[in-house]
Amino acid sequence: KFIISLNAIPRKDMIHLLMSLYNNSHVIKKENSLSNSINLIKIGGYIVHELIGKGGFGDVYKVSLNGKFFAMKELVLTESAKKVFHKNKSLKFLEENIREIRTWKIMNHPNIVKYYSCFIENDKAYILMEYVDGINLNEYLAEMKDLNSKLKFKDLIRIVIDIICSLSYMHNELGVVYGDLTPNNILLDSKLNIKISDFGLSKTLNEKENISMRYNNSFCLNTSINVNNLNNLDCGINHTNGNTNFVGNILYSSPEIIRGDPISFKSDIWAFGCILYEIIMLRKTFWSDNMLN
Fold it and tell me: Which of 59, 64, 66, 256 to pair with 208, CA 20 to 30 A apart?
């Protein structure tokens, strides 16, 4: 019946109809995005395929250009930041004023997701990065637990050494504290090669502000997270303890982060220790029904 009805449509209208159907087939709807709920076909010339990650500082999409896939992070900006970027949309200004970009662009290591570029479109900032076709360590460990299986020793050693190498590179060669090492930020490809991603909470040690201030001077906006939702390892905690605020994941946050004291490389080592225990035992290092207490 559909084919018969098409025969009655003039050729000009038929072409218009088919083009409309083709174009609409590329529209990807952003589900539950922190940004405005709108339909997107392209961002900065890149075709948007799907939402692949959500976080307190922005959503991540799988995009493509000329058949090559990338990951694109849309940063959630404060209202004041939008006004500033509206006046100055230069790439240099963006790279100098968003710490995540400033830190990520200097990274060059096989176990760290590659940073490619950044840009502003419609008063929104975007980071273009390497796309890793796989899952994160949190998902991988959950699969092992569901199968009631342990990691093979050679796979365990390989993952652990790769994490150590990436941290050693950041600490010893760049003087950068990652600040948010969790299984969700450790990506695995099909061969169990790891790539560390998301530098939203990273900082260099020559920056004077402590961990409680690490986003107060940035243009990115963190949203409040339900503290009771700690089973979701992608959640961040924005907790007030007296006059101290911290942002991160409490399951992997060292005592100095929770107290609001200045952080150091030891903060990353603490998080690594928590992850190492979790890789071996397939359970959290610390757990309570009331983690904040």
Answer: 59
How many beta carbons lie within 10 A of that of residue 123, not counting itself?
12
Cα dihedral 226, 49, 57, 177 sign: positive
Q: Does the model's pTM come out above 0.85?
A: no
Across the range 197-205, mean pLDDT stands at: 86
Catalytic-residue membership of 198: no
Q: Give pLDDT, residue 189.
A: 93
Q: How far is 291 from 236, CA to CA, in rounded Å?
A: 13
Residues constituting the chain: 293
Q: Which of 180, 189, 261, 289 is catalytic?
A: 180
Contacts of 268 (CB under 8 A, 6+ apart): 167, 170, 171, 177, 178, 179, 181
